[in-house]
């Protein structure tokens, strides 16, 4: 691709970027001259962004914004201003002190840019860090990071305005002229062909937020007080507006260049000023801006390996002893292992504090998405501005208390929108203002409503009928060895039915066992909000009669999902369960929660499963096992975030741990309960981000059963006989193969994000990603729960030949591991799994191939 001259490097797609240096207080006190104007290219008349406008003698200045505009306040004693821009001749303009005036300037290109210079010679020297002045400079930036971060102050507060827009992009004239869009022509917009997203765009979404944010170092506290917000509102029967907003904000996070890793689209890219950046980036000094105040060094950087998850771009570093980043331009190479991203541009601006350090003043992030480079896609951009910055001025103690993000107590939706419109720091463009109106108009068109109905049903699996939703569709049909062909239909109420009472139900029928199954739950919200909304405070009563495989626990899917009907090996050991439950759940704003529950469970064996004791006096089959238990659950998930919508809530994985503890006490003779026991369990999970080596998901778990119980009441370890790769199940363990009354386990799932594949010829173009996992389980059964020592306990299972198929773990652990390839066609992961221990057990496989669908950026 032809490289454009520098004056085109950051066109209109970079957003509305304004550079403002604070005028010294003494100069303001003496009066100032306000100068405004526009800077253009003398030949093309194109408006020039980021031109330095300064008064060197006064140590003040600003930069032009994206449209070439600038505003500068100059102390009364100065009467000249200097315009400088890389590749252009500098211009000095005189003005009359004391009177506001407009100075428009046309800059001519310098002679060095008029001709092309071709240099031929020997191969350039190999890049190295040693004796490289650029690397010496970046090490100074790294060393000074602590003092240049906001966290170096005891207190910080500022106003934060966010604006996010999305459009369908690069739409061809043929696409626009299709008959289906006959009534939608008002939506299409034209834009500059050099802008990201192509010529034809269809703006569909805009969201604005205004907040006051506070930071306190000791004790550390962060608080955001929402002052106003406004977003496009789609029909709530089709689109979950809150969930849409959460998803977009997850994609477009704040860019903290001073952090070692920058979170972007659910991935982490190594910052160019990370502690170990010189090991992964190449740095070059590309210019010195001597007339800028303070003097700046332009530092260009590129990945050493083009396929690694790294940025390319420029840093402007101050030579005032602070070595602060005054401005940063970031992009990514198309060869980077990042899915669906056609282009990415980020811009960060920093403004001067009174103590001569810098704070973030404005950021822009624009990403053009698409399956192919030339096809239509999706373009989104987010602009954030930080104003009224105050440091080391503590707010009242009450400000830092409570949840990390709150809305004003007296705010309403209408007041919030009005406040934002009155206090918005940047005015909206004509296209942005039209999005609100156009989406409202779009939703009145019947063909659009029909398309949206189909789209939401395919994506969510539910069909909305106002107060009730029918679904999920993937459970309507399934099959298994016990029930045979199984049909199911169900649904749930929505907030349109009631904002306090929620019902969920289904009924199913197996054509082989000729039995009906059903479920009904009723949930009452004790805090008057949706039971899916954080924080939950609810009371739920439910009854379920259905089949279940002991030890099968699947992630985010129903057990009767059609795709999970396909299983390996013998998988006919089922239970008929009657479950009566009463649950109380209380979540707190600090993400600590507890739950109290009562459960009566009646388990009846089915298929190849049986309950039988070996008592010599009265041997025989047992038709039903009944237990009654009360439970207490504790959970703490600091800084947990959710994709949270009208009728769902899915956790967003981040770097913070999650701790859970549960204690269940069974009572004999309570509502038919047959055993006294206590079941204790602890679990801790955490994602570890390993920079260029990707991330590792780690889980530690342990459990202990107190009391003498039959094997169905032991901890039956999570097995998986489906062909789906399950992260927290043992993928080569058979159902009911192992049970324990005490155990400890470790799960590690490592995703290398293509760190090794990106360096291999040919393979690197496929953008594949490497995975590896290890699962270790220690456990056992005490003598009191050993059925061989206690004939009145249920026997472990045997097959038709009398061979045991259920076991207690011995002195060695159960171990399995896998290596795999992820991101196959950008949506599939395939693992080769190996089982290392207990290979002599019946019907086990030493090797297996497991797959998993997952769409990631």
- For the CA atoms, what is the radius of gyration? 32 Å
pLDDT < 50 runs, ≥5 residues: 1-30, 111-122, 555-560
By helix and strand content, what is the structural category?
Answer: mainly beta
Would you count the extended β strands for me? 47
- Number of helical segments with 4 or more residues: 9
Distance between the termini: 24 Å
**What percent strand?**
35-45%
- Helix fraction, binned, reads under 10%
Given the C-alpha coordinates, what overall shape results?
elongated
Question: What characterizes the major β-sheet?
Answer: 18 strands, antiparallel
Global mean pLDDT: 83
Organism: Hymenobacter bucti
Protein name: DUF5686 family protein
InterPro entries: CarboxyPept-like_regulatory, DUF5686
Pfam family, one: DUF5686
What does this structure look like?
The protein has 857 residues and is mainly beta. It is 9% helix and 42% strand. It contains nine helices and 47 strands. The chain has an 18-stranded antiparallel β-sheet that branches. Strands 10, 11, 12, 13, 16, 17, 18, 19, 20, 21, 22 and 23 form a twelve-stranded mixed β-sheet that branches. A hairpin with a 7-residue loop joins strand 27 (484-493) and strand 28 (501-510). The longest helix is centred in the middle third of the chain and has 15 residues, at 446-460. It comes from Hymenobacter bucti. InterPro entries: CarboxyPept-like_regulatory (IPR008969), DUF5686 (IPR043741). This is DUF5686 family protein.
Layout of helices and strands:
Elements: E1 19-20, H1 25-29, E2 32-41, E3 52-55, E4 60-63, E5 69-75, E6 80-84, E7 91-94, E8 101-102, E9 105-107, H2 133-143, H3 145-148, E10 155-171, H4 173-176, E11 189-190, E12 200-216, E13 221-231, H5 241-251, E14 261-264, E15 267-270, E16 281-289, E17 296-303, E18 312-318, E19 325-331, E20 341-352, E21 358-369, E22 377-391, H6 397-400, E23 405-407, H7 413-423, H8 430-442, H9 446-460, E24 463-464, E25 468-470, E26 477-480, E27 484-493, E28 501-510, E29 515-525, E30 537-548, E31 573-587, E32 592-607, E33 612-613, E34 620-621, E35 625-636, E36 641-644, E37 649-652, E38 658-666, E39 677-689, E40 695-706, E41 715-716, E42 739-740, E43 742-751, E44 769-780, E45 814-824, E46 828-835, E47 847-853
Parallel strand pairs: 2-8, 2-9, 13-23
Antiparallel strand pairs: 1-4, 2-5, 3-4, 3-6, 6-7, 10-12, 10-22, 11-12, 12-13, 14-15, 16-17, 17-18, 18-19, 19-20, 20-21, 21-22, 24-25, 25-27, 26-27, 27-28, 28-29, 29-30, 30-31, 31-32, 32-35, 33-34, 35-38, 36-37, 38-39, 39-40, 40-43, 41-42, 43-44, 44-45, 45-46, 46-47
